[in-house]
Write a structure and sequence with these properties.
Blueprint lengths: L10 E4 L3 E4 L6 H8 L2 H4 L13 H15 L2 E8 L8 E7 L4 E8 L8 H16 L4 E7 L3 H9 L3 E10 L4 E11 H5 L14 E3 L4
Parallel strand pairs: 5-6
Antiparallel strand pairs: 1-2, 1-9, 2-3, 3-4, 4-5, 6-8, 7-8
Length: 207
C-alpha cells in the first residue's frame, strides 16, 4: 500500500518538535523500558505485561519488515531538541486496499505535552498523501480518555462502540472506534502553525 518513498529506512516525517523515523536495533533498550511500564501497556491490545525479554527487538524487526514491504508504516518518535532517545511509536497498518488502522504509544514522561497529537496529525497526513486509503480508523478503550482527545483534535469522530480483540489483555475489551475519512481530513484545519517551509514528508537521516 505504501510507495517506495516510505519503504526506505531513511524515510522520516518532521513536526514542530519531533522526528518520526524507522525504528533501529539501537532503540531496543529504551523501547523495552517504556513498554515494560504498566501505565503504557494497560490500554493497549498487544503489549504484554510483564514485557518479555527480546520483545522490543521483535517489535523493531516486525516494524522494519512491514515498512520495507509497504504493507504498513511504523515509526518511532524522537525529540528534535535535547536527548534524541525514542519516546514513543506510531503506526498505520493496512486493512484491505483502502483503509488504515492508526495506533500509538508514548512514554509517560512525555504525557500532557501535545506530542502525540502532533505526531498523529503528521502520520494521518502521510497516510492520505502516500496511499489511496479512503479512511483511517483507531480503536480506543472506552475508559481511556487521553487518546480520545488526541483523535478528536485531529478530526476523528466516533463511528462505533463495541468489543475488540486485545490478545495482551486476555480477550475482548470495550472500545470506541474512531474514524477519519479522506474527505473529512481534506476539510480539517491543522491545529499547529507550519513548522517548516517544505512539506513534512522528507528523506535523509536526522542529524
Amino acid at each position: 500500500m505504501f510507495p517506495d518513498l516510505a519503504r526506505d529506512d531513511v524515510f522520516r516525517l518532521e513536526t514542530a518538535r519531533l522526528w518520526l523515523r524507522w525504528p533501529r536495533a539501537s532503540d531496543a533498550a529504551v523501547i523495552h523500558r517504556f513498554c515494560s511500564m504498566w501505565e503504557v501497556a494497560r490500554y493497549t491490545a498487544r503489549i504484554p505485561h510483564p514485557y518479555p525479554p527480546g520483545s522490543a527487538e521483535r517489535f523493531i524487526y516486525a516494524a522494519r519488515e512491514g515498512n520495507a514491504s509497504g504493507r504498513d508504516l511504523t515509526l518511532v518518535m524522537t525529540p528534535k531538541k535535547g536527548k534524541r532517545d525514542v519516546i514513543g511509536s506510531i503506526s498505520l497498518e493496512s486493512r484491505g486496499n483502502d483503509r488504515l488502522t492508526l495506533g500509538f504509544v508514548l512514554t509517560p514522561e512525555q504525557w500532557g505535552k501535545g506530542l502525540t497529537s502532533e505526531a498523529t496529525w503528521a502520520m494521518v497526513a502521510a497516510g492520505f498523501e502516500l496511499t489511496h486509503a479512503v479512511e483511517i480508523v483507531a480503536n480506543v478503550r472506552v475508559e481511556n480518555g487521553a487518546p480520545r482527545k488526541v483523535l478528536e483534535r485531529c478530526g476523528f469522530e466516533v463511528a462505533a462502540t463495541g468489543p475488540k480483540g486485545a490478545p495482551a489483555r486476555g480477550g475482548l475489551v470495550e472500545c470506541h472506534t474512531f474514524s477519519l475519512t479522506r474527505e473529512g481530513w481534506a476539510q480539517s484545519v491543522c491545529p499547529w502553525p507550519p513548522a517548516f517551509a517544505t512539506p513534512p514528508i522528507q528523506t535523509g537521516r536526522p542529524a
